Amino acid sequence: MVEVKNLKKQYGDNIILKDINLHINRGEVVSLIGPSGSGKSTILRCIVDLESITSGEILIEGNNLTDKNVDKKIKKEILLKTGMVFQTFNLFPHLSVRNNIVKTLKLVKKIDTSEAETIAKKMLDLVGLSDKMNSFPNELSGGQKQRVAIARALALQPDILLFDEPTSALDPELVKEVLDIIRKLKEQKITMLIVSHEMNFVREISDRVVVMEKGKILETGTSQQIFENPSSQRVKEFLNTNS
Ligand SMILES: Nc1ncnc2c1ncn2[C@@H]1O[C@H](COP(=O)(O)OP(=O)(O)OP(=O)(O)O)[C@@H](O)[C@H]1O
Ligand SMILES: [Mg+2]
């Protein structure tokens, strides 16, 4: 689904990502963990083209997103295969919950209002928020806002959903409702790349876990390998202090 090859990212002289190789197979849930500043968000942002890369390649379903000669229209189509959910929700404050989804669908997919309304209803139902359709974002709890953001990302039918710490802006009692939605998406075999500090959740949900530090991948393995028998001492230490 997604293949990251020899990815390097530099801000001036500051090397943020050193030589990242990473792949996510269809239907797989992969989590990225590691200390603050290790480059997790930057990887996600490179995959959805919110950051330019210094060198390397990113392929989405075999399409080279980072090819300098790629046609703008084709690049847009490649990016439509990805959907991102941010820590801070990024909802449009002036639009109702329903219109956050409808307007996005109309803008991005150019479909008519009635079709967009049908999809919006279906997605809000999936995240358990049908009753909040006409509310505005400031009338919702953090957990509800994040569920709307997930519904909006899903409405565009991406082939892969990327989550950047989807629960870290939430009060502890609201975390569960968002994690429950992600569990439900896994049951539906949605491909996901998740950055999270919720170690118990990462352990439970991930098919594979990638551990990063200082712009490099320290170790990759199944959830069981990483959490029960990590090979590097540094990963052991990280998990001991964060679990
Ligand atoms: N726009 C930018 N300009 C310069 N440096 C940046 C920029 N964005 C990020 N960085 C640096 O890149 C490094 C990696 O940042 P990134 O946000 O990817 O880390 P992270 O692993 O997501 O951390 P956290 O767990 O705190 O979210 C950090 O050292 C950060 O200071
Ligand atoms: Mg981050």
TrEMBL record:
The domain of life for this entry's organism is Bacteria
Asked if the record carries the keyword Chloroplast, the reply is no
- Keyword presence, Transport: yes
Q: Which UniProt keywords apply?
A: ATP-binding, Nucleotide-binding, Transport
ABC transporter domain residues? 2-239
A Gene Ontology molecular function term of the record: ATP hydrolysis activity
InterPro entries named among the record's database cross-references: AAA+_ATPase, ABC_ATPase_HisP-typ, ABC_transporter-like_ATP-bd, ABC_transporter-like_CS, MetN_ABC_transporter-like, P-loop_NTPase
Question: What's the family?
Answer: Belongs to the ABC transporter superfamily.
**What name does the UniProt record give this protein?**
Amino acid ABC transporter ATP-binding protein
